[in-house]
Structures are given as structure tokens and as C-alpha cells.
Amino acid sequence: MSDDQDDLVLSELEDDDLVQQMHDDLYDGLKEEIEEAVNILLERGWEPYRILTEALVAGMTIVGKDFRDGILFVPEVLLAANAMKAGMAILKPLLAETGAPTVGRMVIGTVKGDIHDIGKNLVSMMMEGAGFEVIDIGINNPVESYLEALETEKPDILGMSALLTTTMPYMKTVIDTLVQKGIRDDYVVLVGGAPLNEEFGKAIGADAYCRDAAVAVETAKAMMARRHNRVAVG
Ligand code: B1M
């Protein structure tokens, strides 16, 4: 750490500078600094969602670009991810507090071969914040894990996440298996992850592709409303 950074007192920075510093600290994987800065912004009255999007997600986007361009490597990105998770952990209960009573249940997991979980965790947090009960089955899920969770948890929604172009086709394997077993229509299937798009979602037979966590919440709410109407009418 440089002398400059030793001298830096986060609580003395203006909001804009603090957010900028958080982007730098996330980039450098400085977990404790991220935790401290999140708490400072909360004390200053920032909404948890604003901290999440403007400080944490925006900072991770910079990390992602430099990872893509070969400027950052896996160990550095892991440190950044760790710092991001620490910040998210502080915000999680606060986001959940703003939620309404349970509006539905969702099982969510990252597909087989894929260990990326930050986006999935963010979706889980936002869904919980919106009043959904979320059962997170983690990363690297084969079709059997999804089936088991659907069987035991009986959710309304199945959410799948994939961050790699090599793992996203596995979502189709899961959906095809649900079709084969005759249970596809028992669930709303939502998919997301950076390499996906609308067409892909349609092509694999998902109910919707969700660009980000906010879209996932809105889509889930709309789908639940449609489901309830169907049940009421039918
Ligand atoms: Co990975 N990685 N990574 N990585 N990694 C990407 C995805 C990559 C795009 C980087 C790059 O080259 N630019 C690239 C994929 C390229 C491709 O497939 N075309 C890549 C690669 C290549 C790899 C490895 C193969 C690297 C290697 O080993 N050589 C390896 C693969 C490991 C594996 O999975 N088998 C690998 C490893 C890792 C780390 C372990 C170092 C770390 C993951 C740590 C962790 O998750 N615990 C990591 C990270 C952090 C990234 C980047 C930098 C950031 C991902 C992230 O967390 N974004 C990523 C670059 C990027 O995406 N820009 C990259 C922030 C997060 C909030 O966004 O996940 O998109 P995101 O989630 C969003 C939406 O997509 C959506 O909502 C979320 C919130 O708004 N969403 C959903 C996501 N899931 C959803 C599910 C839903 C709904 C919405 O269900 C309803």
C-alpha cells in the first residue's frame, strides 16, 4: 500500500470521491475498505440499492472490462469478487427489510460447469428485497440438483444463471428435462447472465430472459400476477 493510501481517510471524502475510491478499492480487492465505505454511505443516508448499483456493481463492471482485456487475472478478480461480496453482505438484510410479504418462491442456481455467483447472489438479494422467498442452490448445478430442489421446495419460479458461453447451453438441458418429465409448465423459468440475450431465452424455451436483477424482480412479479390470475379464472 502506498503512503498516499495510508493517509486516506474514507470518512473525510465527499460522496462522489468516496464512490470513486470504492471503485478503486474494489479493483484492488480491498475488502475492509469496501465494508467501511458501504457503512459510511449508509450513515450518510444513501439507499442500499443506490450503494449496490452506483458503488459496487459499477465498480465490478470496471473489473470485468480489465479482466476481458487481459489487464487483470483470475486471482485479482477473485479478490475483487470477495470485496464485492463483503459489501453485498452488509446491504443484504437492509434490502430484504424494504420487501413486502412473501409474493412467491424461487429456486435459483448457477448451471453445471459454471462457478460465477455474484450476479446470482445479487438477483437473490433483490428478489428477497421484493418479498420473494429464495432458495439458492449455489453454483455448478447438474440437472439432478435442480430437479431435487424443485421437488422438495415446490417453488413458483426456477431461476438459472450462466456467465460463460460454454455453460449457457446447459440451461436448455435443464428445460428439456422438465419437458420430458411433463413438469415444465409447473414453473416459471427465468434465465440470466451476461452472455445471454432475449433470443437465447426464447430459443431454449425459458419464460423470460432477465438482463439484470431489477428486471428479474419486475419479470417475476409480472409472471406471478399472471399465474394468480390464471388460477383465479381457471
Ligand atoms: Co469469469 N468470466 N471466468 N470469473 N468473470 C467472465 C464471465 C468473462 C466475461 C470475463 C471476460 O473475459 N471478459 C469470461 C467469459 C467469456 C465467455 O464465456 N465468453 C470469464 C471467464 C473466461 C472465466 C474463466 C474461464 C477464466 C479462467 O479460468 N481462465 C473462469 C471460469 C470458471 C468457471 O465458471 N468454470 C472464470 C472465473 C472467474 C472468477 C472465479 C475469477 C470470478 C467469479 C467469482 C464469483 O462469481 N464468485 C470471475 C468473475 C468475477 C468474472 C467477471 C469479471 C464478473 C462477473 C460478475 O460477477 N459480474 C466476468 C466479466 C463480466 O461479466 N463483465 C467474468 C457482476 C454481476 C453483478 O453481473 O454476473 O452479469 P452478472 O449478473 C447480472 C446479470 O447478468 C443478471 O443479473 C445480475 C445482476 O444485475 N443475472 C441474472 C445473472 N444471473 C441471473 C440469473 C437470473 C436473472 C438475472 O435468473 C432469474
Automatic annotation (TrEMBL):
Q: Which family does it belong to?
A: Belongs to the methylamine corrinoid protein family.
Q: List the Pfam families hit by this protein, alphabetically.
A: B12-binding, B12-binding_2
The UniProt entry, under InterPro entries, shows: Cbl-bd_cap (IPR003759), Cobalamin-bd (IPR006158), Cobalamin-bd_sf (IPR036724), Met_Synthase/Corrinoid (IPR050554), Meth_synthase_dom (IPR036594)
Q: Name one GO molecular function term.
A: cobalamin binding
Protein name per its UniProtKB record: 5-methyltetrahydrofolate--homocysteine methyltransferase
GO-annotated biological processes: homocysteine metabolic process; methylation; tetrahydrofolate metabolic process
Q: Record's superkingdom?
A: Bacteria
User: Which intervals hold domain B12-binding?
Assistant: 103-234
Listed under GO cellular component are: cytosol
Ranges for the B12-binding N-terminal domain?
A: 9-103
- Could you tell me the keywords of this UniProt record? Cobalt, Metal-binding, Methyltransferase, Transferase
**Upper lineage:** Bacteria, Pseudomonadati, Pseudomonadota, Alphaproteobacteria, Rhodobacterales
Which PROSITE patterns would you find in this protein's record?
Answer: B12_BINDING (PS51332), B12_BINDING_NTER (PS51337)
